[in-house]
Amino acid sequence: MSSTHVSTETRMFGDLSATLIQESRRASSTNTLPKYNQPLIHAITREIQFLDNALDPLVASAERVLTPGELCAVTIYSTSLTHNRRSLVAYHYHRLNMLKSMYWASGCALPLVLNASHIRPNLSPAEVDFLREYDDVVKQFRDEFKEISGGDDLGELASVDVTSDILTPPKDLHVLVRVVRPCGAVATELGTIEFRMGERYLVRKIDVEHLIIQGYLDIV
Description:
Strand order of the largest sheet: 4-1-5
Number of helices: 6
Distance between the termini: 51 Å
Largest sheet: 3 strands, antiparallel
């Protein structure tokens, strides 16, 4: 059964959720973000509503002794409901984690993520809103650290950029870079640098970390 088409053929409760989880697993193995599967999400949501409606009268009859058939139905419906809901949570949790990874990999440059031809068409409106709100939170958090000032004793350590690469701390404060994509003038704390295509510059890594991640500069 196609992940974007709900067949009318006989199927078991939870089959649609299984298809959704398989889609997430393929995305994980290929490290890609497929198009948000709105038709399948809607189909699973309708199945959840059906199961809820079918379970309600059985639960309301709990004061009396249920027949073996009713007990079997309660087990099937409740198990299927739990499976469907957990599958929806897992699907969306996986996609949001991938979006956050893409955001940080871009150097926290939201336009690069939203304007990427292999990303934007695959996002749902809610995912676009999530990225924008996530970007706002990161900027607020980063600005709080930019206000840290420890005086002359701390020197350059007084400025902290939480969006820079912290997994591999730099051995030196400065780095030699070559311009591989036009990026024009860039304002830094020590002044404006006019980056010219093909030329090399010795700069503070903290000032150009985002340009390196985004592919405008290469470390020589």
